[in-house]
Amino acid sequence: MATIYPVIMCGGSGTRLWPASRPSLPKQFIPLAGNRSLFQETVSRVAALAQKGQLVVVGGIGHRAAIQDQLDEIGVSAVILLEPEGRDSSAAMAAAALWTADRSQDAVNLFVASDHHIPDDEAFRKAVVTAAAAASEGRIVTLGVVPTEPSSAYGYIAPSGPGLSEVSAFVEKPDTETARRYIADGYLWNSGNFIVRADVLVEEIQRRAAAVNTAVRNGLGQADVDGDCLTLGSGFLAAPKISIDYAVMEKTSRASVLPVQFAWSDLGAWDSVHASGEGDVGLHVLEDSEGCLVRACDGVMVAAIGLRDVGIIVERDAVLVTDLKKSQDVKKVVERLRRLSPQHLDFPKAEPLETLNDGALRLTTWLRQAALPVWASLGQDRNGSFEEVLALDGRHVATARRARVQARQLQVYAEAGRQGWRGPWRATVDAGLESLAANYLRPDGQMRTVVAPDGSPIDETAMVYDQAFLMFALACASSATADYALQSKAAAVRDLLIKSADAEGGIKENGRHPYQSNAHMHLLEAALAWEEIGGDKAWSELADRIVGLARSRFMDVETGALREFFQSDWSPAAGEDGRLIEPGHQFEWAWLIARYGRRRGDAAAMKDAWRLYENGGRGVDLKRGIAVDAMNIDGGVRSGRARLWPQTEWLKASLILAELSDGSKRIECLDQAARAQRAVWRYLTPQGLWRDKLLENDDFIDEPAPASSFYHIMAAHGQLLATATAVGMANVESLRLV
For residue range 500-543, what is the model confidence (pLDDT) as tens digits? Predict the structure, then answer.
């Protein structure tokens, strides 16, 4: 069997299916005969033929997102060749054939339209295998559908004999009477599917349309490659606009046709969509009506009375009512719209995406005017203890209070003070420190884990994770208030932890996962915070020790991904625990190790920061625009739920790596930062609160706002300010909280 490279052609705008099909989302990308789009149905039909070859999609640059999203939805990968501008079928097919021939000289291309309806996939594939055998011998085979009725909607092919035979003639769309004569003479419908060896098509185009070949070769040579996506260069624009029929098929001596009898339609107009039996969509009620097609957009109810053979197509901004027998004339309506109401030719444009700079300014205002005032008042009780959560309407929720939340909130308000916020940050910090000392610190200076709302202890355990946040909070408070006595308190906690470290430098956590990376990550954050404000050298030594452990034990040698849980010798934990990676932690470690590498001038550390960042990026759901909660080490998604904090870590890591890059790499990181910031904004509420957990169906869990998220948001804002200053973003001073 020949090696087949299926090529799906995604050109065309489907104007006869207005208003559902429009240039920005033409008919191939919308469901017309079933639950999946015609493009997805085509992919499913031909992908199995690419056993040794590869699936190729040729489309316009404006449809890149639609192509990638719809491939992802059905779990199929493909090489995507993007045209900067449509230059008709000969140029598109030349691009795919040249790309294929460069990889396999004897490969056969199967060229199919992306918008045809063929219910019998198996019959189609069987016909392609038969045609591919002839194509391997140098023939250019097209599939000719045996007509079921005289149609003026299709072109026709005159075969020279029965079965697979040479083409006698290609003829254009006839009138109905001529179509009847064609059928009587044994003509076939021209399906527009071609099976040809790639090098044969390249040779034919070079011979008969040399300008097309030259322009396409230039465009391929200039292509911008992004993974499996190639955007053809400007040289492609010089290709003459000419169809493959005119360029090659009507001139070549190699054309053959294979008659096929499976059901086929190009779904070119609303009558053919109705004939498929699967065209009705949306809510509708028909009374005393027959033979009607109704398609209603979400949320719209269509009711019709006393109608026969009528199509009713409802979109948000346009409605079409047509006699189905005259649905070919929709094209005339579209031509009139070009003059009378051109804004209805395409779907209304979405609002432009918020820029990084605009989103940062909005975040600063939100912090200054909403979040910081709310959590300093409603989020702190009379005794200075911070609330664990606030209801989304700001109401108090009685619950136990974790010590780590106290430390995190102290850090938030100390940072606000360092940035010059004019609200009551100092009173908030002072009251919080007093409450911390009175209710949360044990006699040895470490924090207990949980206390009741009245301040009485619930859990006396000293978690390493919590002590990391205690030391981090004290660093920020010391810097903001110039209270240098806080350093000795933090150092005492640090020294207790260092004494418990093992030979590898790791510190065992109390709890279900004693050997974990997460607690060490926050110890590194605390150590860097003290180092940056002039703490003693033991902080730098602690940072060195943790980074060394992370790079030698926590990070997977092969993938560069950082694991969560380990055994006592710091080898990966057994089972599912050892396979878990969290995209948010990949980003957070990348941010910290990038800071560390910059301070040390350590190029190897910077390389590892980039590897971590790339692993975090694998956890970004491109369609939803968010970083998910959990992956497996092999790259599979373990949980598609998405909490708020991974979005802030995606933002922080993108920003700091933008600072440490230049050229296209900086632009790419800043673009990622803008995406991450837009993800963060999905969670924030105007009242200075936030939602925490976004489910796979993009609904939020209805629950109070956790105070613990504020630390992540504030750190992201601090990095925004630092990066804006470093790279010279506009309105830097406006990003300060003053």
Answer: 999 989 999 998 999 999 999 999 999 999 999 999 999 999 99
CB 387 within 8 A of CB 397: yes
Sheet with strand 401-402: strands edge to edge:
401-402, 450-451, 457-459
Structure token digits, residue 521:
């990550």
Check: CB of residue 608 under 8 Å from CB of residue 601: no
Tokens of 736: 């300060």
Strands 188-197 and 108-113: antiparallel
How many other CB atoms sit within 10 Å of the CB of residue 552?
A: 12
- Alpha-carbon distances, residue 71 vs 43, 65, 163, 695 (angstroms): 8, 10, 35, 22
The pLDDT score that the predictor gives to residue 729 is 85
Q: How many CB atoms lie within 10 A of CB 704?
A: 19
Q: How confident is the model at residue 278 (pLDDT cuts 50, 70, 90)?
A: confident
Sequence-separated (6 or more) residues with CB below 8 Å from residue 599: 528, 531, 532
Burial class from Cβ neighbours inside 10 Å (0-12, 13-18, 19+) for residue 111 reads: buried
User: Is 518 in contact with 581 (CB distance < 8 Å)?
Assistant: no
Q: Burial of 238 by CB count in 10 Å (0-12 exposed, 13-18 middle, 19+ buried)?
A: middle
Kindly state the helix (H) or strand (E) to which residue 627 belongs, with its residue range: strand 626-627
Token duo for residue 204: 């034919």
Output the six-digit token pair for 172: 């254009």
CA distance 13 to 17: 9
At 420, phi and psi to the nearest 5?
90, 20
